[in-house]
Write a structure and sequence with these properties.
191 residues; alpha+beta; SH3 type barrels; 3 domains; 6-stranded antiparallel β-sheet; 5-stranded antiparallel β-sheet; 17 strands; 18% helix
């Protein structure tokens, strides 16, 4: 018995050293490949059902949307969204189901018919409990401030130029830096 344990320990140790060496080589190789491929040559992945880019942002169409553990009504409901217009990110597609992620990182499956292509954003949800963020009259931090928005405020996206977004809701309309919004990608343009 002692002999078998020793052989097993040596095998695990050798395997561990091999994996460490592999990991040390994997990172530089991955970085090389990323740098070797021109940015323009990378094509966005398209959904197998919708033929639209994956990932992409959409919003919830209804005030009540069940988030399920898998892509069918047979799967358990893990969460119920109760806010129409909330931005979510589509990560995958399967038949009439979409795997989504919310601003807090929660993931699950929803029926595609409960999603809308209308673009919305949450103002700095990662900044909850901190000071309000300024909304400007123009896409310029020297422009007059038209409102101060609490983190987590929901807004409609009218347009984004890659740096600034024009957002609006019932009581405000103005410009905010794109990197302060969840619901739009860095450098993404929205018309």
């Amino acid at each position: 018995m002692k002999h078998k344990k020793a052989v097993f320990a040596v095998t695990l140790s050798a395997m561990s050293r091999h994996l460490s060496a592999t990991r040390r080589l994997a990172l530089p190789a991955a970085l090389f490949l990323c740098l070797a491929i021109p940015a323009g040559a990378q094509q966005p992945q398209l959904g197998p059902v919708s033929n639209l880019p994956i990932p992409r942002f959409v919003s919830l169409k209804s005030d009540r949307v069940n988030l399920r553990e898998g892509p069918s009504k047979d799967h358990r409901t893990s969460w119920v969204f109760q806010r129409a217009g909330l931005p979510v990110e589509i990560l995958a597609e399967f038949e009439t189901w979409r795997r989504i992620r919310d601003a807090e990182g929660g993931e699950g499956w929803v029926l595609h018919s409960l999603l809308s292509g209308r673009r919305t954003a949450l103002v700095g949800p990662w900044l909850k409990g901190q000071a309000p963020l300024d909304l400007y009259q123009r896409a310029d931090e020297r422009a007059p401030v038209v409102a101060r928005l609490e983190p987590g405020v929901l807004a409609n996206i009218r347009q984004c130029d890659g740096t600034w977004c024009r957002i609006e809701a019932e009581r405000f309309d103005g410009f905010m830096r794109q990197d302060r919004l969840w619901g739009v990608y860095p450098n993404e343009k929205v018309d």
